[in-house]
What we know:
Layout: E1 2-18, E2 21-35, E3 41-46, H1 56-65, H2 76-84, H3 91-109, H4 113-116, E4 130-132, H5 137-146, E5 152-156, H6 162-172, E6 177-181, H7 189-200, E7 205-209, H8 218-227, E8 232-234, H9 244-250, E9 253-256, H10 258-261, H11 264-276, E10 280-283, H12 290-297, E11 305-306, E12 319-320, E13 323-325, E14 328-330, E15 343-344
Parallel strand pairs: 4-5, 5-6, 6-7, 7-8, 8-9, 9-10, 10-11
Antiparallel strand pairs: 1-2, 2-3, 12-15, 13-14
Helix pairs in contact: 2-3, 5-6, 7-8
Magnesium ion (MG) binds near residues 181, 210, 235 and 255.
Amino acid sequence: MKLKAYRCELLLAxxxxxxxxxxxxxxxxVIVELTDADGLVAIGExxxxxxxxxxxxxxxxxxxxxxxxxxxFNDVPGSMAFLEAQPxxxxxxxxxxxxxxxxxxxxxxxQAVYDFLGLGFRNDHHVTSFSIGIDAPDIIRKxxxxxxxxxxxxxxxxxxxxxxNFAALRAVAPEKAVRVDANEGxxxxxxxxxxxxxxxxxxxxxxxEQPMPRTTSTKDLLWLKARSPLPLYADESCHxxxxxPRCAECFHGVNVKLVKAGGVSVAYATLQAAxxxxxxxxxxxxxETSVQVTAAAHLAELADHLDIxxxxxxTNDPFAGVTSQKGILSFATAKEKIGLRVxxxx
Length: 346
Ligand SMILES: [Mg+2]
């Protein structure tokens, strides 16, 4: 198997700031291509996240040093077991390789990935939220106006200006459904409860993601869950299927992302386990191209909510795949019919 990996600098429409990281106008991702002996080419993406201490350099170094002899489109589980045994594999690199392996396997089978996985996909049924990063209130107002076509917004909080920012959102979108993401920003359970009670008084908040740090004790999370007036979803606290039992205890739902899970295969198992445990499921994303957003969309039938807008937040997406019209996802116009259904833009 031949492996090609290269860096891709993504330009953001607006600088991106959340509670756990500083604002930035660009973001580095890594694109991977696997080519087998028959010349079948498959694609994947690593969208490394500084939240987890991963960067493009480390991902590229790992991929350049990797002996690809253990990878095959004919054996995705065996290939993943080979990758799991590689010391120090970044989860973003594992994700990129898994996407390419699943793309290649589905191409071999002549199927789209959602059919290859037995899930199917309903066009014009699934809706993604549109994310509004932390900013000054007047910029929040402008961003919310620009996002008028999206039926659901996700507001990032965990900043001293939270109340002003939320008021700015409501000033221009009084009726809109909103979900909120604190990105570990509230440091004590008392602070988190105060903020949740304030948000609940709005009456239109769907749920709140990751109110407290991922290192918060089970005891404190249970205290908060017992008192929270809004459903609480784990993001930074939920990576893979192994985190589901604790999340079922401490949260009402989980936000599963391909990068955290190490690809489509584990994300699929994690979403299924979450549903079985009675959790609501959400699929999220990083700042990323249409390769990874489209890969996530193939799992949409396993999600109660989608937040896969990483490709909408950038202005130089080199790829096309699933489309979003007013937040409603569709593969209807995708040029590519099999695999991840991703093609390069001209
Ligand atoms: Mg989140």
